[in-house]
Structure formats: C-alpha cells, structure tokens
Write a structure and sequence with these properties.
Elements: E1 2-5, H1 7-17, E2 32-37, E3 40-46, E4 50-57, E5 59-62, E6 64-69, H2 70-79, E7 85-90, E8 93-98, E9 101-106, E10 122-127, H3 128-139, E11 153-159, E12 162-168, E13 172-179, E14 181-182, E15 188-194, H4 195-204, E16 210-216, E17 226-231, E18 234-239, E19 258-263, H5 264-274, E20 284-289, E21 292-297, E22 305-310, E23 312-314, E24 318-322, H6 324-333, E25 338-343, E26 350-354, E27 362-366
Antiparallel strand pairs: 1-5, 1-7, 2-3, 2-6, 3-4, 4-18, 7-8, 8-9, 10-14, 10-16, 11-12, 11-15, 12-13, 13-27, 16-17, 17-18, 19-23, 19-25, 20-21, 20-24, 21-22, 25-26, 26-27
Helix pairs in contact: 1-2, 3-4, 5-6
C-alpha cells in the first residue's frame, strides 16, 4: 500500500475512529486501526460492541489494507505538522512521512481483524446540531454504575416524527422531545443506547447538517439489536443495551403547588458559591418566598454560607434541599437565560425547565434530599 493524504482530514478521521478502541482489548488485534486504501481511505475500529468508520479522499499509488496500533497512530497524527502525509508499506512495517518527520510502525495481522457489522437500514434523519444539543441535555442524568447497565443508557423512543430521549440515575431524570424526519412514518418503538457512546457520537457528527439514524432490533430480544449513526463521511454502530427501564412517566409531576422563575446564570453562580462549604453529599438548602430565594449550606459547628437572589415566586413559602452538583447540571442544561423551578412539596421531585414554557421540550426532574433541615 502506498498513498498520500492531507494532514487535517487524516487527523480528524483518526480521532473519530479511535473512539471505538477498547481500553483493555481482549485480543491484540482489537487495539488496531484498519486502513483500507482504494478510491478513498477508509479507517475502521471495532471492539465487538462499538464500531467506528471514517472515509477521506486520498491520492493512492497502490491500494491495500493494513492494521496498525490505533492509539499510537492517533498520537503520531495529532503531533504532525500541517503538511501532506505519505504512507507506504514494506513487508511487516508501514512508514509514515510528514515533512522531515518519519515514523515506522509494525503491522498487526489484518486477516485476524473482525468484520465490522453492516449499517442497518436508515430509520430517519435529524438535524446534527439539534441532535447533539438534545443528547447533551439528557446524558447528564444517565447513570454511571455498571452494575445497573440499563441506567447507563439513554432511552430513545420513536413515535412518528417525534423522538423522546430519556435518562435517569434514580436521583434525577432528564426528558427531551425532538422533531425528526422518519423514513417509516408509522414506526413506534423504543431502544436503549449506551449514553457514553451516544454522547461522543452526537458531538462528533456536528460538522454535517444532518445525522442519519439506522436501527435494527431483534424480534423479542433487544440484546441482538444495533443502532447506527452516519454523517459527514463518518459512521458508527453500537449494540443496544438490554434490561428493564424504569417507568419514568410516573416521576413526571403533572400539577404544581408553587413555581419560581429566576435568572439562570446568577442562580448557578450562587449555588456554586454556597456549595463551597458543603461537604461531600451535603445538600444546599433553598428557601423560596415572595421576591427571593435564600440559598444556604452547612449547619452547627461546620462552615456555613448563605446568599439571597431575586426571584419571581408564586406559592407558599417553601424550603427544599438538593445535591448542589445535580442542581447545577439541571440549570446548565435548560438552554435558557431564565430557570423555571416547579414544586409540589419539599419531599417530592422538582422540575427545572426554561422560562415560561407551557409545554417545554426539555424537563429536568430532581429528587430533593429529604433529610435536610
């Protein structure tokens, strides 16, 4: 194999493809990145769970396929000067040249590399920027405990031209509704996608206008299903998660006894300042009354802090306590200059949305810490 490619497209393609490299490969070849030169250069990685593939233009003298260490290639390409990159293979080695820099890499046995899964048939398309924004709003609430694998996923519900994205770690719940263009308008299904993979994928596909979503579910057994995403010459697939997902609809309050509206940025800044004295797992207490909210942390002989900020408030005076980081996550995710906080009682979940939205497309539900104050 002998080829030449521009440095910047190569660096972007290698970085994208390296996403699927396993941290602890079960076989040496899974640490490799496959480079296949033909009319284009196709870079691939696969760990039997997640596959990633990128295609870029090239000038090839001799087509061919090689398998090299993915992480080493990523580090090398990231450090190269902005000049054309030449790649040539000789026996069990491949040589990479860029300007006056030369690297020689040992080849891995390409014939032992697993076959990447086929991309399923396209299910629909969605705007790339809107998709990335929606995923980031929801992913903050996904669980990180691998002993509860279903909670580490984002539930993707498809109903006609509406996508509903849901994530929860049992302490908070994020729900985002998003319009899309379905290939099959009558499709009505729900799948569970690993949150980490979905978040990385959505962010990386914003260079294009749209993302194609491709879904294949096994009848009666979602463990054999995969979902694929494609855009801007890049595509990835991942296995779907299995397991029973919580019936989250029961956690969404339908009526509220009090509602507060306050500027999001000053609210977040005040939470950060007051939380400086809060020990690990110690809540920040919020007391809502007419015209203001008082934030407090610390009690007794501990360090203490308090700060009051102006707020529009409709309801009886109420004190409620939250994990400060979970509260900050919700304020930062609403994509609005005003935060609307709706309550029922101090022991029931509160809902954070953007300002004055009768039917918000994003809801962040936060469980209070009942033992506080």
């Amino acid at each position: 194999m002998k080829l030449q490619v521009e440095r910047d497209p190569l660096a972007e393609a290698v970085a994208w493809t390296a996403r699927a490299l396993p941290a602890r490969p079960t076989a040496p070849v899974l640490a490799g990145m496959r480079l296949e030169a033909g009319s284009e250069l196709t870079l691939s990685t696969f760990d039997y769970e997640v596959s990633a593939q990128a295609t870029i233009p090239l000038a090839a003298d001799e087509p061919g396929t090689v398998l090299v260490s993915g992480r080493l290639l990523a580090e090398i390409v990231r450090s190269l000067p902005a000049k054309p990159v030449d790649l040539s293979t000789d026996g069990a080695r491949t040589t990479l040249r860029c300007g006056s820099a030369t690297f020689t890499l040992m080849l891995l046995p390409a014939e032992e590399y697993p076959t990447l899964p086929d991309m399923p048939q396209t299910t629909g398309t969605v705007g790339a920027d809107a998709f990335a924004s929606a995923i980031s709003q929801v992913a903050i609430a996904a669980g990180r405990d691998d002993t509860l694998p279903a909670l580490t996923g984002i539930r993707v519900e498809i109903a006609g031209d509406m996508l509903t994205l849901v994530a929860t770690d049992r302490y908070r719940l994020a729900v985002r509704e998003l319009r899309w263009t379905p290939a099959v308008p009558a499709l009505n299904t729900a799948v569970l996608v690993p949150a980490r993979v979905l978040g990385d994928t959505a962010r990386a596909l914003t260079s294009g206008a749209e993302v194609s979503v491709a879904l294949a579910t096994a009848e009666g057994n979602s463990t054999d299903g995969i979902i694929g995403f494609e855009g801007s010459g890049r595509k990835t697939t991942t296995r779907l998660l299995s397991g029973e997902y919580p019936r989250y609809q029961s956690l969404l309050p339908s009526e509220f006894s009090a509602v507060a509206e306050l500027p999001a940025a000053p609210f977040a800044d005040a939470v950060k300042r007051v939380a400086l004295v809060a020990e690990r797992n110690t809540p920040v207490r919020l007391t809502f009354s007419a015209g203001e909210v008082l934030l407090e942390a610390g009690t007794g002989d501990e360090a203490q802090a308090s700060e009051a900020i102006g707020a529009s408030y409709d309801g009886e005076d109420m004190q409620i306590a939250f994990n400060p980081q979970y509260l900050l996550d919700g304020i930062g995710a609403i994509d609005s200059d005003m935060a609307r906080v709706s309550f029922t009682t101090p022991t029931r979940p509160a809902v954070i949305t953007g300002k004055g939205e009768a039917q918000p497309d994003y809801r962040y539900v936060l469980m209070p810490i009942r033992s506080a104050g």
